[in-house]
């Protein structure tokens, strides 16, 4: 049932890139042409500054465009922040909310819920990130932490994506066992229902993506480091079809 969901391969560029990365989507399309990935969604989330610049090339390449965070308000006195409406007008289709790097900088379940709801109001699809720290996993609390984060972070409106990203697996080369990934994804599935795509994120590479993407309730991946190079991103995406 869950594998009937269209896989989503998403690259989170974080604070990386430069104006000349505008052609990366076309580079990706040359490596893995649109005609060969009709059953797959591919998304690039560049720094917000480059959304507008990438909006044409992602469309040409048959890819979606996303932002990495948004404010909960539509406008107002919030220095340095961007609203979901602004990101939408710059060409975004999706927005990541509650990434562990943003949770570490102050996001809470409550603020993530408000951001996800703001994204929905603006017409964006939120990708809500959850995941335990190493200490929480070592204590045996991974499942409890993730369930609590989900309960507190979901928007009131339907149509969102969940990304399970264990904090200790991000940028470290460490990955949970396939059994541990399956256990968490099954629990998330039971919590959010059949229609929601659940991505895995944390040190996804071309070498481990095949096994991870084959897990029943894994509907795609949220990729950091390996999403900066179109060669590795396209290799991972090929393993999702
Ligand atoms: P890495 O793939 O570099 O571990 O990053 C994962 C991530 O944080 C994606 O949002």
Architecture blueprint of SSEs:
Blueprint: E1 8-12, H1 24-31, E2 41-45, H2 51-60, E3 64-67, H3 84-89, E4 94-97, H4 100-104, H5 109-122, E5 125-130, H6 134-138, H7 142-153, E6 161-164, H8 178-192, E7 197-201, H9 209-213, E8 220-223, H10 230-238
Parallel strand pairs: 1-2, 1-8, 2-3, 3-4, 4-5, 5-6, 6-7, 7-8
The chain binds 1,3-dihydroxyacetonephosphate (13P).
Query: End-to-end distance, in Å?
Result: 16 Å
The pLDDT mean sits at 97
Rg for CA atoms? 17 Å
What's the helical proportion of residues? 25-40%
Verbal overview:
The chain is an alpha/beta fold and 241 residues long. The protein has a single domain (2-240), classed as Aldolase class I (TIM Barrel, Alpha-Beta Barrel), CATH 3.20.20.70. Helix content is 37%, strand content 15%. It has helices at residues 24-31, 51-60, 84-89, 100-104, 109-122, 134-138, 142-153, 178-192, 209-213, 230-238, and strands at 8-12, 41-45, 64-67, 94-97, 125-130, 161-164, 197-201, 220-223. An 8-stranded parallel β-barrel has the order 1-2-3-4-5-6-7-8, surrounded by 5 helices. Helix 3 links the parallel strand 3 and strand 4. Helix 1 crosses helix 10. The longest helix is centred in the last third of the chain and has 15 residues, at 178-192. The two termini are 16 Å apart. The relative contact order is 0.16. The protein binds 1,3-dihydroxyacetonephosphate (13P). 1,3-dihydroxyacetonephosphate binds at residues 12, 99, 165, 170-171, 201-204, 222-226. 1,3-dihydroxyacetonephosphate (13P) binds next to strand 8.
